[in-house]
Amino acid sequence: MNENKKLNKRQYAYEVIRKRILNGTYVPGQRIIIDQIAKEVGSSHIPVREAIHQLESDQLIEYKPNSGAVVRGINDKAYMEILEVLALIEGYATVLSAPYITRLGIEKLEALNNNMKVLLKNYELEQIGELNRDFHFTIYTFCPNQLLIQNITQMWDRMDAVRRTGFTFFPQRTPKSIDEHDTIINMLKQKTDMEELESFARMHKLNTLKAFKERN
Fold first, then answer.
1. How far is CA 38 from CA 9, 23, 24, 46, 151, in A?
2. Burial class of 104 by CB neighbour count within 10 A (0 to 12, 13 to 18, 19+)
3. What is the arithmetic mean of pLDDT over 159-179?
4. Are the folds of 2-71 and 76-213 the same?
5. How do the domains of the chain map onto residue ranges?
6. Half-sphere exposure (CA, 13 Å, Cβ side) for 98?
7. pLDDT reported for residue 167
8. 61 and 52 in contact (C-beta within 8 Å)?
9. Residue 67: left if φ>0, alpha if ψ -120 to 50, beta else—which one?
10. CA 193, 198, 203, 205: dihedral to nearest 10 degrees?
11. DSSP states of 37-78 as a string?
């Protein structure tokens, strides 16, 4: 019973800190005050420290000398490396998902992309970012390799942690990305050759990397 209670407090602390990192309440470089979190979640320091260690494994937090746990930042080099890795593993995840995707799954992808087109006309780019994630992870819900999706999720979370700082803001990429989504949907519908699908899904992510390099 006590062990379950401890796990619940650790999970609660984890969710509180993680949510604040992802929604921008805690910004890159900000120190995580263990005393403060412990008071807020009504626990001792131990569950909070364990939650922080879990977030460190998720690459959302890092320990710095004389500072302790701080929200992990991201620089140009790290961001480009993440996109390169995501291009490889998301291409593969899309291929693994393709044989299992349902008609309802395709319809959801079409609805999400159509909503993104509407938001683009209204220049609501932040909401487009959220729908973009929903679009790709809708595909991955059909992927049988959960370890692969876990790794993709951790990388997206790390990028989302700095999304609100403007670091990844290059709107010229958005219309092209939405058009590429239409192509991915059609390839899934038509059960395109797996190598061709994987190549296009990989290029979809690499095009974002290219836009990032050319943003200035």
1. 9, 20, 20, 9, 29
2. exposed
3. 71
4. no
5. 2-71, 76-213
6. 23
7. 46
8. yes
9. alpha
10. 140
11. HHHHHT--HHHHHHHHHHHHHTTSEEEETTTEEEE----HHH
Q: Which amino acid, residue 187?
A: M
Q: What's this model's pTM, rounded to 2 decimal places?
A: 0.76
The amino acid present at 130, given as its one-letter code, is E
2-71 CATH fold: Arc Repressor Mutant, subunit A (1.10.10)
- Per-residue burial over 110-126, b if 16 or more Cβ lie within 10 Å, else e, is eebbeebeebbeeeeee
The CATH homologous superfamily for domain 76-213 is GntR ligand-binding domain-like (1.20.120.530)
Closest CA to 184 of 112, 80, 129, 127: 112
CA neighbor of 186 nearest in space, from 78, 106, 76, 84 = 106
pLDDT per position as a tens digit, 42-95: 888 888 999 999 888 887 888 888 888 888 877 778 888 889 999 999 999 999
- The closest alpha carbon to 31, from 9, 63, 75, 74, belongs to 63
pLDDT tens string 117-158: 999 998 887 788 889 999 999 999 999 999 999 999 988 988
Contact 60, 185 (CB under 8 A): no
Structure token digits, residue 4: 């379950």
